[in-house]
Amino acid sequence: MRLNYILADLGIGLKRNLSMTIAVVVTIWVSLSLFGSALLAREQVDLMKGNWYDKIQISVFLCTKDSGGRGCSGTEVTTEQKNRIKQVIESSPDTAPEGVFGETKKEAFDQFKKLYKDSPIVSTVTEDQMQESFRVKLKDPQRYQNLVSAVSGLPGVDTVQDLRQYLDPLFKALNGLQFGALIAAGLLLIAALMQISNTIRLAAYARRREIGIMRLVGASNFYIQLPFLLEAVLAALIGAVLACGTLWVGVYFVVMQRAQETFRVWQWVGASETFQATLIMVVVGLVLAVVPTFLTTRKYLKV
């Protein structure tokens, strides 16, 4: 196999199809950039869920004389009712071992003063107005609805709160955006696949006579396909490198420089997740180059 001939043939192919090659590079660049962004979006949603779902507890607030909950009757929760509520919580199969913590009115008032220490509202609230509560940790943070249903409406229970009811719509919206990005990336990847196929088809058709002569003198299929394969791989690698660079720049300026500094409460994707995404992007780019090249050039190998 003569390397100089293959490289010369590669150069001729790139010159003949320069505009098409540039179009392939740009299409792969854009499609892989969006594909990588979708991969990172999925990782970000998983990190946000893991960061919050394991820490959020169900809060069961007990009745006071001013409570208007379904389980309240205008009086303070009794000791018997508290014991019954705690028994129901502890007997639930979803409650983690040693996962029930009681909060007294004093503890709730101290926490309230700590949260609103600089607000004038502190002077208008008394300890007696605070609500006792049970804080419940679950075995599986995703399974909270069964326990909420079991506790809601029990005598002495005012309200049951779980931040998941507020976070779930956020995560659903993020998952929707991620799904939309994946669809758009998939369509662009299909466009890149078709673009590469058309480029290789035009190049093979322009050199069909040369291919026929090489086939007649005994050149192997792989030897004939190699210049076309190198042409497609080169375009795919350039597009993949540009896409990876775009992803790294975006993560650095948008996530590391802005999001991490502004929203410190969240855990954000970093270098590790970005590196994994870029590896996948390069592999996908190479598959986009190799598969259509082999399939497209097969019909021109028959003499």
TrEMBL record:
Principal location class: membrane
UniProt domain FtsX extracellular: residue ranges: 56-160
Swiss-Prot/TrEMBL keywords: Cell cycle, Cell division, Cell membrane, Membrane, Transmembrane, Transmembrane helix
GO biological process: cell division
Subcellular location, record wording: Cell membrane
Membrane topology label: Multi-pass membrane protein
InterPro entries per UniProt: ABC3_permease_C, FtsX, FtsX_actino, FtsX_ECD
Transmembrane segments: 21-41, 179-205, 226-255, 275-295
UniProt keyword Cell cycle, yes or no: yes
A Gene Ontology term for the protein's cellular component: plasma membrane
Domain ABC3 transporter permease C-terminal residues, every copy: 183-302
Family: Belongs to the ABC-4 integral membrane protein family. FtsX subfamily.
Record note on quaternary structure: Forms a membrane-associated complex with FtsE.
Database matches in NCBIfam families: FtsX_actino (NF038346)
Functional summary from the UniProt entry: Part of the ABC transporter FtsEX involved in cellular division.
Protein name per its UniProtKB record: Cell division protein FtsX
Natural source organism: Kribbella voronezhensis
